[in-house]
Design goal:
Shape of chain A: globular
Largest sheet of chain A: 5 strands, mixed
Structural class of chain B: alpha+beta
Shape of chain B: globular
Radius of gyration of chain A: 12 Å
Low-confidence stretches of chain B: none
Distance between the termini of chain B: 26 Å
Helix content of chain A: 25-40%
Order of helices and strands of chain B: EHEEHEEEHEEH
Distance between the termini of chain A: 37 Å
Mean pLDDT of chain B: 93
Oligomer: heterodimer
Strand content of chain A: 25-35%
Low-confidence stretches of chain A: none
Strand order of the largest sheet of chain A: 2-1-5-3-4
Radius of gyration of chain B: 16 Å
Mean pLDDT of chain A: 95
Number of strands of chain A: 5
Chain lengths: 85, 147
């Protein structure tokens, strides 16, 4: 499955890119599994996703839990908890 | 009238007041959030999502308009780099009744701290850079509006 992944805040800084297109293996079926796969893929991912409980996600513009399925997803955004205002 | 914007340009309060008040309102309540210079902070950078940040602000604005009787609502959030004293966020709510304007204003500022895709990064005079962590109190204040 091909996915666009966009990173924000310190996740983006640690990944070194704002977004990328990735081919994820078939066994990566939900957001949590995608995060685990990115963490295992390389050193940048290991640093960015060392604490998965600090990561939030959105699929195609909609906030989702880490257990959300990736079926039909085009863009997955990964980011820390928000701190606006 | 609902006006929502996410912008890298400085927030011009006088212009926003003019736009908002064009129709005249009984009661207006406002909140202005500014960059604090605590601890020799030299820059505050606000990261955002190009589509979701604006959509999140618009959702909040419509939630407020559904909940309270408002005649106008302005919600402007700055993004990008700014220095101490600059305005980060401007909330302005108007209603025939002051209680509605005040409650809507407080709701908007509480909820945008937890619901909108924005992230603060602080840079200090000695070169330290850190991303702001969410405060526990932010969630508590935002949650009180769920009832």
């Amino acid at each position: 499955m091909t996915l666009e992944i966009a990173y924000f805040a310190w996740v983006r800084e640690r990944m070194g890119v704002a977004d990328e297109t990735v081919d994820v293996p078939a066994n990566v079926t939900h957001v949590g599994a995608l995060i685990a796969w990115l963490a295992a893929r390389d050193a940048r991912g290991q640093v960015a996703f060392a604490e998965p409980q600090r990561i939030r996600a959105a699929i195609d513009g909609v906030m989702m839990g880490l257990d959300a399925p990736l079926t039909g997803a085009r863009e997955v955004a990964l980011f820390p908890p928000v701190t606006g205002g | 009238m609902i006006r929502v914007a996410v912008q890298p340009a400085a927030i011009d309060i006088a212009t926003e007041l003019d736009l908002h008040d064009a129709g005249g309102h009984g009661a207006s309540a406002s909140f202005i959030g500014r960059v604090r210079g605590d601890g020799d902070l030299t820059e505050l950078f606000l990261d955002h999502h190009p589509a979701m940040t604006a959509a999140g602000l618009a959702d909040l604005a419509h939630a407020a308009a559904d909940r309270w009787q408002l005649s106008a609502l302005t919600l402007i959030h700055r993004v990008g780099a700014m220095v101490p004293g600059e305005t980060i966020v401007f909330v302005l709510t108007s209603s025939p009744h002051r209680a509605e304007a005040l409650a809507a204003c407080e709701f908007l500022i509480d909820r945008l701290k937890t619901d909108v895709m924005l992230w603060k990064r602080e840079t200090f005079a000695d070169g330290r850079v850190r991303w702001v962590e969410p405060r526990e109190g932010d969630g508590t204040r935002a949650d009180r509006w769920n009832a």
